[in-house]
């Protein structure tokens, strides 16, 4: 194990690199030209204008006021100053609660560290075991850990007591935090202004009906079963192909703009391009004409696809967004079962319109069930066997292999520099590439599982990532060998043996984790604030694509808090802290620095940079809480395993009640708070309804909800329904129309017919009428 | 292992005893005097009159028609003749579905047996392993089992294939049965006539309010949050003390009747009794006067207690039965969350009035949570350590111990007969007594857990009993040593070792289980039909207590299907069948006989004898299904363990997909069917509401529901509310009154007041006004 001097040196290096990042950040953020990279949030909010207007030419790009450079850390107090309520309003509850996780880490570990250093460090230090062992070179660091206490010593009572104290303190902070977040969420929901998702339910698995279209079927079902509350609905179109076309056209548009800009700057020289892929080969043509014509073709295709979707009954998916007249009616429909067959007419709260994941809205129940089975099996193999394909790639990447397969490359490979690059980097790169694409793999798996909202996908990916980290980073660092070998050896060991095997190795790995914390947790977080990639991308875009202020607005990439990858990373620090609290307290200060530093950095980012894709009202908190409990239980199990190797097998049983109580605490908290994150109580719904009725008695809800849940590619196009609210609107049995031409045709038919069912419409075979 | 001859002999003995029971039953049931013991159901239904009226004196008691004796088994076809729909109507869905479990056993195991005997028995028989072993005495029975196949033989492919076939067949029958039962339940609910529980919700944990009584608080809450649906409610009184007094008075009444009967038969001799406990000591007094005066004292106490409950605000528990105007409104309230705090205003479907377990209606959430934790821990110790106190009692019960502690008993103990009785029976009796009181212990534990209906208590007790049987009967028979020793050795073995240890022993234990099936499953079931205890009790009561026809009616004890004890017993037979299907198919025919015989016997009992305490509409089926899946998984694990000891470790991995698919099948079924047993879909509710509104437009629901959920001790007494339906009834804000005197007083006050809240009533401090 490394000595205190070694750790000190490593800390110095990492601190220096962290400060280097911070200094670079401080320099760059003061340059007006980077303003949109480091303060995009304020631009999106419309509070900050473009800095290029008012100042001189030089001042537009470079900041020449030297006093601002001296105070290069003054963003830190600024980040801390915004009060929480303002922060919620400014950045949303999701972000505000997310940075509370770091605060929770501080609340949890500062008292634990004080206690551990006050009680356990003296006990360990005076243990005098390691001094008597000659053949191993132990350092001062080890003398601070539990390894220095002789086996069977009564000193372990201190550790057992402290384990209980730490558990109780952890549970207390978790309970208080869960309570606070639940209250924040309820207050947020209560204070929220009217939003379409408050009044809308997502209905999936609408059963096919031979007599009626999906549209009519949904309408009749809800008119009959929620007669007093049903207002209107929107069917879901399968617009995945259309979305692809729209994305293609956008890319073309970028190229067109690029060449137009080029031409504008150099009007003498009309730019050319080649017709092949990427513009690298093929015949040379005039670039602006080429892309203009391509755009036209795409526009035609798009129009045809739009037409097809509107007229093809098969383009309507068996799902719908059903809106109600009141929050009470919505809460009722979202939380009850509609049909005796629980696999059809599935209702759930509609996600926010931005939050909908459109591709997954129409998966049948059986398929969903099979998809979940398959992804679970796949996840298992991904976690435990992920090293196998990588080892395979690594073995392929050795020089002899490459020479044999691709013999013509021989002269190149035998060059000295190429050789060393391949030998030195290729194996590492294979692993690195895998780790970079891992979040994408996990997200794809969650998408295959069939969840219907982005927030849910994020939550599920975070769960997968968490287990990957536990098995491959945590256990992988402690025990040598691949996860699959571990799994095999665990299956062949008694269950009581596993915590022992792992527990024994824990004190020895403290320095590894300390180094990890400094590299990933200190320098890594400092790199986060520098935003190198968005900085480069913004300046590239700004140079080649931006013509107007609006373009510049779109060239900004504010990014967002990526819950799916960053939350499991925090959990890993919690796990380290809990595991090492009673084993090697020396690790704790490093974790505290991580939490404090991250808190400031992310608070700054949330205030100035990130723009969240959706707002879920901190719905992820039950997951965070549950995973923290899992970390706590892992730490307890490992402590039991460790103690049972110290000639204290009987005493270890004393830690069993702690484990049971933690399980119980988890169940208690789930019963006490979890429903605040998944259900909407009728009392609250009624209060909001009553208030709304009193304040806005003449609100036209139907008009308000009309286009709320239209697929983004249809937004603002083709869906302009007549704004006239005719008398039929008050009769819920008359369907709401979407496309104007069908509506007007149908209206004339419906007015001459007394039946509520649009029979006439059926004959025309036009499902475009919603 | 026993030979086929041994098993044949044992089978002959058990068959004979079973036939002896059946013959005794056939004789006894034909005697008119036993008619009420063997056909109580028909008396309760009012279809069968007393046989003593029409015939001659001799014929009243003994059946002299010899032809009826010849056909002593003719009850069997009679039991099978009633069609299922008629059975459901006659005995209820609970009973009809319960006997389908036996039928399911037949459906599952008859094809499995045929396949096993067609494929596995020849494969095993020609394995020729045991013939080559000299030192062990194997019999023909073993040659039919998997033990006869040499390790590493390709013959095991037959077993692996068959395991898959058996699993698929089992899952198929389970799926079909779940589907059938779900449809039966839905049809039953749809066809059901109006019942109070369809329109009522049980509300628990009503929060205390300093300004309002529980009564007012409930009313205002539901008036505000369910304005269109709330109808009325009934608060729950804490009448546990009163119920005790009522039970005491009933016992007194029995004694009084006994002495009055005695006096009537012998008018010259006025009966006497003694005043001490049980009438064994104390001063001698006139019995009739003594009990009459005692009755009077009790009646006074009862009246005082009643008065106290009506006037003491503390006697009202924070729970209420809230009724709604429609099934739709009820379904909504039962399935949604009312308040943002999920531990108060808890709503759930009200159990049937007969099904309510009144003692548990008012347990706060935190207490409930702690109670569940404690009973879970207690159950764990009960299952794994139950042998410890019994071993302690057994060690106390040896002769030396007793002589030492109670030396004055020495001369008695040294008598030869006493000695042999103590040595031979005491240890066994200690165990037997424990096993007899076990269901009571488990039921008490379930009661402590705080469930609110008898049906739920039964289901939870069955769950506990199931695990007790798995651990102590199944594993206990296979592995020697107490359950606690097993647990310890399991913790110290690798997890893959456990199925091996158990799996290896399985083939050797086949004969033990065959004997068990014959004793418990054949003779035991035959004893069930004889009803010895109810027979004796009925004749005792009939002789001493019965005066009128009504008394005789009450003296009948029809009993009921005891789900909590008998369902886990059936599960044990399923487990045996599944475990031995591929290992020792010889066991299967015995199980088939059990299922067939039990089916006939219980069908007869359900038709002629049992009177269920409640009707839950087969709500227990998800539990039955889940436990069957557990049995299937246990059998798969043990098969894997067994095969891995046969030099087939690699092949065993082929059985892993089977395990995963079974888990998935369980989840799929739960998602597909379970909600039919816990939720009431809004569509169905709406259909029933609409139908009721059309057929009975003038129904006075409030009158109908008035006394539905009154504690049984109040039934028909003191709760005569005014029958007049005044105009206030239509105003939901005016509370419903219960006791007439308070109502009339309040009515005069309320009519002069315009506020809806009964302020005047609050001042008088009279919470009796409901």
Automatic annotation (TrEMBL), chains A, B:
Pfam families: PHM7_cyt, RSN1_7TM, RSN1_TM. It is found in: Membrane. It comes from the Eukaryota. Residues 737-770 have a biased composition (Polar residues). Belongs to the CSC1 (TC 1.A.17) family. The chain crosses the membrane at residues 12-30, 101-121, 156-175, 373-397, 425-445, 466-484, 572-602, 628-645. InterPro entries: Csc1-like, CSC1/OSCA1-like_7TM, CSC1/OSCA1-like_cyt, CSC1/OSCA1-like_N. Residues 371-643 form the CSC1/OSCA1-like 7TM region domain. Its main location: membrane. Residues 199-360 form the CSC1/OSCA1-like cytosolic domain. PANTHER family: OS05G0393800 PROTEIN, PROBABLE MEMBRANE PROTEIN DUF221-RELATED. This is CSC1-like protein At4g02900 isoform X1. It is a multi-pass membrane protein. Residues 8-177 form the CSC1/OSCA1-like N-terminal transmembrane domain. Keywords: Calcium, Ion channel, Ion transport, Membrane, Transmembrane, Transmembrane helix, Transport. Residues 725-770 are annotated as: Disordered.
């Amino acid at each position: 194990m490394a000595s205190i001097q070694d750790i000190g040196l490593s800390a110095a290096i990492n601190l220096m690199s962290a400060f280097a990042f911070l200094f670079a950040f401080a320099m760059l953020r003061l340059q007006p030209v980077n303003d949109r990279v480091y303060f995009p949030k304020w631009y999106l909010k419309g509070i900050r204008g473009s800095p290029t207007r008012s100042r001189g030419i030089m001042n537009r790009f470079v900041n020449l006021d030297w006093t601002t450079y001296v105070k290069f850390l003054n963003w830190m107090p600024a980040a801390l100053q915004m009060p929480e309520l303002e922060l919620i309003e400014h950045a949303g509850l999701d972000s505000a609660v997310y940075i509370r996780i770091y605060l929770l880490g501080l609340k949890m570990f500062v008292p634990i560290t004080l206690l551990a250093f006050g009680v356990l460090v003296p006990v360990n230090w005076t243990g005098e075991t390691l001094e008597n062992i000659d053949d191993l070179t132990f350092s001062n660091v080890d003398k601070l850990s539990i390894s220095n206490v002789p086996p069977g010593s009564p000193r372990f009572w201190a550790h057992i007591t402290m384990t209980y104290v730490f558990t109780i303190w952890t549970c207390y902070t978790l309970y208080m935090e869960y309570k606070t977040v639940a209250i924040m969420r309820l207050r947020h929901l209560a204070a929220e202004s009217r939003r379409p998702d408050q009044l809308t339910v997502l209905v999936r698995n609408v059963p096919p009906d031979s007599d009626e279209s999906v549209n009519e079927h949904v309408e009749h079902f809800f008119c009959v079963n929620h007669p007093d509350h049903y207002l209107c609905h929107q069917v879901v179109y399968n617009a995945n192909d259309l979305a692809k076309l729209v994305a293609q056209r956008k890319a073309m548009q970028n190229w067109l703009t690029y060449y137009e800009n080029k031409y504008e700057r150099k009007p003498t020289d009309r730019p050319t391009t080649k017709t092949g892929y990427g513009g690298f080969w093929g015949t040379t043509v005039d670039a602006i004409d080429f892309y203009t014509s391509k755009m036209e073709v795409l526009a035609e295709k798009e129009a045809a696809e739009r037409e097809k979707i509107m007229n093809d009954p098969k383009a309507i998916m068996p799902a719908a967004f059903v809106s109600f007249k009141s929050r009470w009616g919505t809460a009722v429909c979202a939380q009850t079962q509609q049909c005796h067959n629980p696999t059809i007419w599935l209702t759930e709260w509609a996600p926010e319109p931005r939050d909908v994941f459109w591709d997954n809205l129409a998966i049948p129940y059986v398929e969903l069930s099979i998809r979940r089975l398959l992804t679970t099996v796949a996840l298992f193999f991904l976690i435990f066997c992920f090293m196998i394909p990588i080892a395979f790639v690594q073995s392929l990447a050795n020089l002899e292999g490459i020479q044999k397969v691709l013999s013509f490359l021989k002269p190149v490979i035998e060059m000295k520099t190429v050789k060393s690059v391949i030998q030195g980097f290729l194996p590492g790169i294979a692993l690195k590439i895998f780790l970079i694409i891992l979040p994408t793999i996990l997200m794809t798996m969650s998408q295959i599982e069939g969840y219907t909202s982005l927030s849910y996908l994020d939550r599920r990916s975070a769960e997968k990532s968490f287990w990957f980290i536990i098995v491959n980073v945590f256990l992988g660092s402690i025990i040598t060998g691949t996860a699959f070998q571990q799994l095999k050896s665990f299956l062949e060991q008694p269950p009581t043996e596993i915590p022992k095997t792992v527990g024994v190795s824990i004190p020895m790995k403290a320095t590894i984790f300390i180094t990890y914390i400094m590299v990933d947790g200190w320098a890594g977080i400092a790199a986060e604030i520098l935003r190198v990639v968005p900085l480069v991308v913004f300046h590239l875009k700004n140079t080649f694509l931006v013509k107007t202020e609006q373009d510049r607005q779109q060239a900004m990439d504010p990014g967002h808090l990526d819950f799916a990858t960053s939350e499991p990373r925090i959990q890993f620090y919690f796990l380290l802290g809990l595991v090492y609290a009673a084993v090697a307290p020396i690790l704790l200060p490093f974790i505290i620095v991580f939490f404090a530093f991250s808190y400031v950095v992310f608070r700054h980012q949330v205030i100035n940079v990130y723009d969240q894709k959706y707002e879920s009202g901190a719905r992820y908190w039950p997951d965070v809480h549950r995973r923290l409990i899992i970390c706590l239980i892992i730490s307890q199990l490992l402590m039991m395993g460790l103690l049972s190797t110290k000639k204290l097998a009987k005493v270890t049983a004393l830690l069993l009640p702690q484990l049971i109580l933690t399980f119980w605490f988890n169940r208690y908290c789930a019963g006490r708070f979890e429903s605040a994150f998944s259900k909407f109580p009728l009392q609250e719904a009624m209060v909001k309804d009553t208030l709304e009725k009193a304040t806005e008695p003449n609100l036209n809800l139907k008009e308000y909800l009309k286009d709320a849940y239209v697929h983004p590619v249809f937004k603002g196009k083709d869906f302009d329904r007549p704004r006239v609210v005719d008398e039929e609107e008050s009769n819920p049995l008359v369907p709401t129309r979407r496309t104007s031409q069908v509506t007007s045709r149908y209206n004339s038919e419906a007015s001459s017919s007394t039946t509520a069912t649009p029979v006439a419409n059926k004959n025309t075979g036009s499902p475009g009428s919603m």
